[in-house]
Amino acid sequence: MAKKEFQAESKKLMDMMINSIYTNKEIFLRELISNASDAIDKLYYKSLTDTSVGMNKGDFRILLTRDKDSRTLTISDNGIGMTREELEQNLGTIAHSGSLDFKKDNKDDENIDIIGQFGVGFYSAFMVADKVTVISKAYGSDEAWQWESSGADGYELEPAEKETAGTDIILHIKPDTETDNYDNFLDEYGIVAIVKKYSDYVRYPIQMEREKSRQKPEPDPKPDDYKPEWETYTELETLNSMVPIWKKQKSEVTDEEYANFYKDKFSDYADPARVIVSRTEGTANYNALLFVPSHRPYDFYTKDYEKGLALYASGVLIMEKCADLLPDYFSFVKGIVDSQDLSLNISREMLQKDNQLKLIHNALEKKIKNELHAMLANDREKYESFWKEFGRQLKFGAYSDYGMHAELLRDLLLFWSAKEQKMVTLQEYVDKMPAEQKYIYFAAGDSTDRLAKLPAAELVMDKGYDVLLLTEDVDEFCLQIMRTYPRKDAEGKDGTVEFKNVNSGDLGLETEDEKKAAEEATTANKALFDAMKDALDGKVKEVKVSTRLKDHPVCLSADGPLSIEMEKVLSKQPG
Ligand code: ADP
Ligand code: MG
């Protein structure tokens, strides 16, 4: 049977495209600037091999012109332009992308960084304009053409006048309504803000006349009653910074430049604690510039805090906070990822869940982990102040998901050492353990001072063993879920050592004889202990002789997997 082609209600399709693809109207400017940049790229590429083009890289620019009276915003480029046929093909055919064809034809060339691919971005202009006029002259052609449309109804083509190659896109901006603000797209500051947000790293200058004011020259001689006078004038200004700082080599950028970029971009008053530059690793193709802040954002431990990295595709902003790029336990990291290889969805506001993203996530996770390790090893003081701000998040990461990430994070954790009177890593604790010590001891409670005075902690310390003093609720969960830490045995073979709460169960300190003596004393005084247990009326499970006491007459001890402290935490949780 002969196959039939699908018919499309192009009017409806256009309408859908214009009004339902994008969440943000302001995106139209990102799309039109991206097209201008692509057009320039194509002519620039040509100029590299064809000297008759007669253009240098510095000659290319994208010009924005606004006219409040006629309500027009014009985006002009001096790129490759379009012939009559190309206007029909590219702007008259939904989902036809001349840029994608170009990219395919030149796919072996690394210098090409063309943005377009879906063939729909242009129509986003109709979100803000009730009429769009395109005047274009293709490079190498001697005629110019005008394409004009009011959206779904179709378009008109006619010959036009234009001196040089390139394209002018003239948007007739819609009138303001009660619900929608369009005047912003004619406003100087409104436009500057949108360009900065989405197109700051477009490789060619985006220019616009800006209004300035200056003092008029003073007359000479100056009259006695002279008052300074001011005048306004306009000046062509480049709005974008063009070169993405993350594409520069680390050696080309000063610490101060990184710090300023960070503070500016992520609205922080303080310098970052660490700058991380990361590039393509293995099969993940990207440039990343990440920052570890030096202090917690005020909302960090609240629901309002949104983790994520700004995601760019070929220098154009796709998402301000892409959460999928960062694991939760590194949610404090800020920064930027730029990649050419993302499978964007058609609005270019989101990604298809793709493998590339996962690869970048994994590469960044490893990189951040290594950088934190380096900070711990080389700049302990800085690491400890980082730990004060974000340590809780790492401990939480080690313990969440049933300890899935414990192994990855365990060597980044710090705990207070009773013996050393400072923060130590688990490795440092284990390195100092006497050979016969059976456990990593810890005590959990409200303050390190009180914990150090616990009878059980004193007992362990008397043996010459260290005790980790845990004062945050998440601490003990974290150790409990890790259960053990690697330690080589006496013969140097790989083994593990368990964590032990000084308040729970058998501390492994007594000799067999001491244990036996305690059991005998308990049996011999059964009547006394039973009486004590009755007097405490169900508040304790058992009363017995303890080998743990030194100066104190009595201690409480938990029996079972949870310590008294953990039981307290759990009983505080709702539900
Ligand atoms: P995409 O950019 O994804 O290809 P668009 O709808 O934004 O889709 O643009 C469609 C096509 O129109 C582009 O691929 C390009 O061939 C052509 N085009 C758009 N704007 C310009 C321009 N300023 N100069 C030259 N060609 C352009
Ligand atoms: Mg486009």
Question: In a few lines, what is going on in this structure?
Answer:
This protein has 575 residues and is an alpha+beta fold. The chain is 32% helix and 21% strand.
- The residue fraction in helices comes out at 25-40%
Mean pLDDT: 89
Strand segment tally? 19
- The Rg value, from CA coordinates, equals 34 Å
Task: Report on this structure.
With 575 residues, the chain is of the alpha+beta class. 32% of the residues lie in helices and 21% in strands. The chain is built from 16 helices and 19 strands. Strands 5-4-3-6-2-1-7-8 form an 8-stranded mixed β-sheet, with helices on one face. A 6-stranded mixed β-sheet has the order 15-14-17-16-19-18. α8 crosses α13. The longest helix is centred in the middle third of the chain and has 24 residues, at 355-378. The protein is elongated. The relative contact order is 0.07. Magnesium ion is lined by residues 31, 34-35, 116, 121-122. The site of magnesium ion (MG) has 6 residues, from α2. Keywords: ATP-binding, Chaperone, Cytoplasm, Nucleotide-binding, Stress response. Molecular chaperone. Has ATPase activity.
